Each structure stands twice: as C-alpha cells, then as structure tokens.
Amino acid sequence: MKKSLFLILIITFLVIGCSSSDDANVTDGNKDNFDRKALLINVADNIVIPAYQNFSEDMTALKTATSNFTTTTNEANLVILRNVWIEAYISWQSVGMFEIGKAEEISFRNFMNVYPVTTSDLESNIATGEYDLTTVTKQDEQGFAALDYLLNGLSDTDAGIVEFYSTNTNAAGYKKYITDLVNRMDNLANQVLTNWKEGYRDTFVNNSGASATSSLDKLVNDFIFHYEKHLRAAKIGIPAGIFSETFDNKVEAFYKGDISKKLFNANLSALQDFFNGKHFAGDSKGESLKTYLDFLNTIRNGEDLSSLINNQFNTARAMASGLNDDFSFQIRTDNSLMTKTYDELQKNVVYLKVDMLQAISVSVDFVDADGD
C-alpha cells in the first residue's frame, strides 16, 4: 500500500514538473477571447481582396502586352511584355500564400507558379499544338515559369527570341502557346477574385470559430505552409542543396536570372505584412496574428513572441541582402550565403509553426516532406 502511494506521488510530481517546464518556454497571459472575426475582416477587406485586385489588373496588363507582341512582333514589344511579366510576377508574390476558397479548389498556386518548367514537354506542346492546360500533369508547362522560358530562354539575344515568334517555321505555334498561357492565367486570377467578391468573403469572415475547418485555422496553416515550403524551401533551400545536391537551375525565374532576389524579397515582405495585419499597399494595420499573440501576452523565454517573429523576419531579410540578384549565379559562386539565408528563415519556422500555433491553439494540417 505504501509502495503504491509512493508511486502515485512520484508520477504526480513528474507530470507537474513536465508541465512547468513547457510553461517556462511559451506562456499565455490572457484567456483566449480574442476577436477572431475582426482579424478575418481585416485580412479579407484590407489584404487579400486588394492584393488579388492588384494582381488581376497586372494580369490584364500582361494579356494586353502579349496581344501587342504577337500582333506586332518586334524587340521593342518583347521588352515591354517582359517588363509587364516581371511586374505581374512580383504582384503574384502577394497572393500566392492565400490558397484558400476558390484558389484551393482550382489549385491556383500550382497552375500559376510551378518551377522549374519542363521545357521538353513545353516544346512538344508547341510542336504538336495538342495540350490541355487544365490537367495536373501540365502544371510544369505553364504559368510564370513557362513565360520565363518563352520570354527569356529561347535565345541569348532579344533578336533571337523574336525570331521564334516571327520567322521560325512554327512561329504561329509559339504565338498561340504564349497567348493560351496568359489567357489561362488571367482567367484563373479572375475566378479567384470574383469568388472573393461575390460571396466567399462573407463565408470566410463568418467562419470565425476555433476548429480545424475554421477560416483562421486554415488561413494560418496556409500562411505557414507557404512560408516553409514555397519561400524557405523552394526559393532558397532546394536550389541551395539543403536537402540534397545543389540545383542552380531550380531557382525562381531561372531564365531571366536577375530577378530571383527581387521575387524572394517581395514574398518575404508580403508574408511579414500579413503577420502584422498591414493593409495591402498601405501603412495602416488591423487585427492580425501579431495582435493576437500580443493580446494573449505570449512570451517565449522572457520575450514577446510577436517581437521575436518580426525580428527574425528582419534578420532573414538582412542576411538575404548580401545575395546576388541572380540566385543561380549565387549558388555557383558562393552557395554559403544561400545556406545562411536558409538557416535564418528556418528559425522562424519554429516560432511560427510551434510557438505561435501552440499559443493560438491551432493544429498543423499538413505533413512535412523535406526532412525538417
């Protein structure tokens, strides 16, 4: 009897000890009665919809520039089209993280920006004229990466690229393919924007509960998934060889080359702005993941978790500032700067995916695939 009582006491002390250890790492000072709906309203009205509106307008401009180039095919119109493509690609960095609602339904991100592009299959599509861009197997033959190849990768010179759309024996095929790609991208962007404006916004905002299917739970998971897989891994880790050998051809915008850093910075800033509830293209801020953590008075090892997260965003940005504009060149010449940038990005994975989710009582709904 005495032995049983002794064992019970030992187990009790162990449980209390473990709980105390966990609480010392991350603590929440307030009961969670935070207004999740206010956060969702800010995200929908001041971040997501304005960002999609801007992206849709950039896609319309891309469609117009493509039409002008295929109608009057010369180097001047190629340069204009390329510049409009760059602007749309930068704009994309502010919406790609929101894989929710219609975007999730149509697999928007994967049809818009899978890279590297499979050039052999793309060239086969152009040669045969037979392709269905709606199929999943064609995701690496369309989108921004395919346009990168068609606008920058066909030749080392603009004159050489123009020849593919003018004097090439299948110039009509190249014109048709680039037109079909841009039309599809524009159509997908309009589908997502229209869905947000015509009903999904209210559905999103009103689903303000605390469950795996609530808007906030899904949104936060999408945010972290994008940060971890599409920023940290795809833009930096995979090409830098963090998970295997280096792949200098797997950087974003490989054929253009000198905009991969610009795209990275645009996406990093968009992710941090979202965390802080900063209005798209503005300075005002609303309820956000930051204000949620601050409301809960979430402390990690004696410091505000929201400050730790923002500081780490800034540290990663500072580390990346030393990278070459062309990530492919950076990998070939001094890959250590890429791996150091990855390391700084990885630190925020812990803050966001472990500490933040614990604080706001959200569970991870995706599976790791890169061994981290």
UniProtKB/TrEMBL annotation:
Its main location: other. Keywords: Signal. One of its GO terms (cellular component) is cell envelope. Residues 1-24 form the signal peptide. CDD domains: Imelysin-like_IPPA (cd14659). It comes from the Bacteria. Pfam families: Peptidase_M75 (PF09375). It is found in: Cell envelope. Residues 49-347 form the Imelysin-like domain. The keyword Signal applies. This is Iron-regulated protein A.
